[in-house]
């Protein structure tokens, strides 16, 4: 096992809440804040902090609009976010392969 492989994991994505958000967004083009919150059973504040971290890293784009006079916040992976998540998943798979007992 190469310990450097673990050090290459993207720490922004690796936190379980952010990994869950990235996983949801990788599976669908766009989700509302409410859909993400409900799917992951997060509080508004916790989800907001995670989304802000992902947005600051350039991994998630956030759009704020109005729908039926109510604010609507939607999130989607950016191109960089999709690439970073793919790299992250591939690295996890590599770790599993390296440590698989024959």
What is the molecular shape? elongated
Q: Report low-confidence residues grouped into runs of 5 or more.
A: none
Number of helices: 6
Number of domains: 1
Strand-residue fraction? Answer: 15-25%
Q: Under CATH, the topology is which?
A: Arc Repressor Mutant, subunit A
Q: Which structural class matches the secondary elements?
A: alpha+beta
Strand order of the largest sheet: 1-3-2
Q: Just name the CATH architecture.
A: Orthogonal Bundle
Radius of gyration: 15 Å
CATH class: Mainly Alpha
Helix content: 55-70%
Mean pLDDT: 94
- Number of beta-strand segments: 3
Order of helices and strands: HHHEHHEEH
Instruction: Report the biggest beta sheet as strand number plus sense, adding barrel if it closes.
Output: 3 strands, antiparallel
CATH superfamily: Winged helix-like DNA-binding domain superfamily/Winged helix DNA-binding domain
- Whole-Å distance between the termini? 14 Å
